[in-house]
Amino acid sequence: MTVPDGLAGERVDAAIARMFGLSRTRAAELILSGHVSVDGEPPAKSDRVEPGSMLDVAIPAAVDPFAVVPETVEGIKIIHDDDAIVVIDKPVGVAVHPSPGWTGPTVVGHLVAAGFRISTSGAAERQGIVQRLDVGTSGVMVIAKSERAYSVLKNAFRQRTVDKTYHALVQGHPDPLSGTVDAPIARHPKHDYKFTVRADGKASITHYETLEAHRFATLLEVHLETGRTHQIRVHMAALKHPCVGDITYGADPTLSERVGLTRQWLHAVRLGFEHPESGEQVEYESEYPDDLQHALDTLRDAV
């Protein structure tokens, strides 16, 4: 479009905002991302426009961050499947459902691509999802296929009747060897991608016991009474024993490199609950993936 006389001397971002009905912030984003030119040249957002200049603006189509993209994901294993539920072994690097800022593979996208029917209960991007695992956490999880299963399982997780068992390899040696961490968790005040123990947080309870003690680290079995985001990672870091490899929560990068880890050593090994249709108590397990097994073996062999 040609810059009209009425916008003479305006900043480029202000001119774009007025001419195209955009916010100044959106206009500035378009300039910074290279979608704007003035007389064929890329401007700075603070440059001024002159009447008669040719303003070229490309406005990319908006992408829905919650849209489910069907995509088969290598490494997702089906542990159990029936009319009510599907139980999977989630690999590292896979999110459970779409979210803003995440462009990688998702469990929901894989199940849709593989032809699984999932419950329609819940928000569109996480239909059938009754629990979540972090992108960097692997292991067993259950997804609801029927509406009844979603309702029953969601309530079971809410009532804390689901047995969630994790194994975590943490730095050092917790004292006592077995114990309970009862400390509220809230979003970190300075880093919105992290969580921390804070008095105004949500009630969070983690039980742990030692399975193996090695020179540099301890293998713990962890049972969650609550299910807060990053709960085990935050509680272990609060004890000054972060999960090995968990750089975000203070793990030693030298030790992480030594054992070949690029993510936290944390794995959901067992999940037990009352089957939503039969009422039978069921339990499903997941073995350690190769990267976690290698790291543990390395520490076992350390002298």
Compact overview of the structure:
The protein is an alpha+beta fold. The chain contains seven helices and 13 strands.
Throw out a few tags for this protein.
single chain; 303 residues; alpha+beta; Structural Genomics Hypothetical 15.5 Kd Protein In mrcA-pckA Intergenic Region, Chain A; Pseudouridine synthase; 21% helix; 25% strand; globular; EC 5.4.99.-
Blueprint of the fold:
Blueprint: H1 12-20, H2 24-32, E1 36-38, E2 55-57, E3 77-81, E4 85-90, H3 107-113, E5 138-144, H4 147-158, E6 163-171, E7 178-182, E8 185-187, E9 195-197, E10 205-213, E11 217-224, H5 231-238, H6 253-259, E12 266-274, E13 281-285, H7 290-301
Parallel strand pairs: 5-12
Antiparallel strand pairs: 1-2, 3-4, 4-5, 6-11, 6-12, 7-10, 8-9, 10-11, 12-13
Helix pairs in contact: 1-2
Account of the 3D structure:
It is a single chain. The protein is an alpha+beta fold and 303 residues long. It has three domains: 5-57, Structural Genomics Hypothetical 15.5 Kd Protein In mrcA-pckA Intergenic Region, Chain A (Roll); 64-158, Pseudouridine synthase (2-Layer Sandwich); 160-303, Pseudouridine synthase. The chain contains seven helices and 13 strands. A hairpin with a 6-residue loop joins strand 12 (266-274) and strand 13. Helix 1 (12-20) packs across helix 2. The protein is globular and about 75 Å long. The model has no long low-confidence stretch (mean pLDDT 93).
